[in-house]
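hi!! sorry for the late reply, been swamped w classes. u asked for the two structures so here they r. pasted raw, havent cleaned anything up. first the sequence of the first protein and right below it the tokens
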Amino acid sequence: MPPHEKSESLSGHLRQLLFSPKGGIEGLLLQVDSKPLQVSMEPGSVDANVLNDAVGKPIEVKVSADHSPKTKDGARPVYQLDSITKVAGKAFKSNGPQPISGVVANIHYARHGEPNGVILESGEFIHTRPPGMKKLKLQVGSTVVVQGEARTTVLGTALIEAREVNRVTLE
């Protein structure tokens, strides 16, 4: 979740999850100092199961005010999520650039049949895109160290958009 303009920290209670028409979580409705406010986010940027478990609990977030024309006449203030810092008083590690390492258990294929990444033994999907797989020549049993942007699949498992694998930069 990239930082937007000036970030600020907010503490309140997570009252409701806000869904996109496709069913992903695209926002949070928080109660902060007895006032409702909305925090928008990219669907899949935070594990849906974690967010579902956090409903009704205290939450701390870093946000940036959304001053876009679409939010001007909204029913409540709208912010963009930069990161979640605590849930129920415990530190929370948001998705975002994350290093991860592991052993390749399976090759993953795009819908047209080309290899486009790997599945690690620990379950993470490392998305390299087909040109990345050609460049890396990964096989089952290969050890990888990956840098990239973390998201969550619909099953709640990690998906890493690989930017670098084994010190090889991907485009």
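now the second protein. again sequence first, tokens right under
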Amino acid sequence: MNSKGGFSKLTFRAQSFLILTLLAVVRPGIARTGDTGSVAGLTVASPTVPPGGLLQMQVFMTEPKPILKGRQRVRSQAATSGAVNPAAAVADIVSPLGAVRDAAIFSAAGDVSGVAVTDSGGTQFFFSSPLMTYGTSTDIPVITLAYPVRSTARAGQSMNLTLDADDSQWLNPKGKQYSFELKSGAMTVGGTLSITDVVPGAGVVPAGTVISIEGVGFQPDSKVDFGEAHVATMKYVNPKLIELTLRDATEIRGQRIRIDNRNNERAAYFPYQRTNRVGKSTHSLIAESYPLFSDAAQTLGYFRPTFQGTLFSGIALQNLNATSVKATLRLYSSDGLLLRKRTLALAANTYVARDLVELFPGALPENGTKLTVTSDHTIQMLGLLGDDTGGTVLPVPPSSTP
């Protein structure tokens, strides 16, 4: 739930061969030789986070590589100390983290979209970058995953932050797999300083606009670095809030925000617009997924649902406007007959994700049907291609033609 708004009817066509490739099971190793011989790497930051703070798991490219599409599973697992005392051992394996709060992916041009599917074994990211700018910067993470750190967490507890080599696929612009080296990280509970949110989290903010940095452990003399922007004014409000303004108009999303305290503690955070989910899908796979929208906002989008065996199609819509919008979904038969019409109201800063069967009861979408989405204001749109057997949900950008 991310991105900056736009005002053009920018659309992308989803190519079926890309989707089918991502559905294949891939079992690469930690270091492997791809078809191109090109080697790339991923690394996970290893922060120290206090009880009551936020772990933003940050995954970076070690060198710029254009990514067309792919998938990556990440896992967090409590590390044990090997204590002889059974009571201490039990305490060690209790996770200091709460449930996943949300997720984001970043690309230089804002073209990447994706889906993060959570389950008991971790979180699986699926992504597609039509302009292939995903992975071309080492300054912004390609993946972030946010977990609250429990207030009951004990100093010294640690969590392994693992990139799963058995579920990793990163394809170059020709659709060939990169050879990848994965370097996992770890989080340690400790310190007092953490950033939990930046508001607003996306969009171009005019100079002088008040920006709120939320967190814990802020001090009156904390120093703030706002990525590529220049801080004009800074106001310490309390240990959980700092307000500042910037000298120039700045795109907020993806800026590296750092706060330093005088005791040499440092916290880093990459902002994105956090939105509220409207209801919850009755389809468990959709309910367990976070749609990750590209930056493109539009008033018209076309989709071609897929239903074959355990495959199904869904839709996700997000409204980053300051006011509510109405989105109208029309389902057509293969010969152009209107089967059903559904209007959804989206309040400001909200998103909805549903299986199409939920949205059109009594009119079973099938192969050959067509879906048109229109909105009275620009919104973000993303098709969802799910597979209940594989537990996957792939991003399907809207098409420019019916």
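hope this helps!! also noticed smth abt the second:
DSSP finds four helices and 29 strands in the chain.
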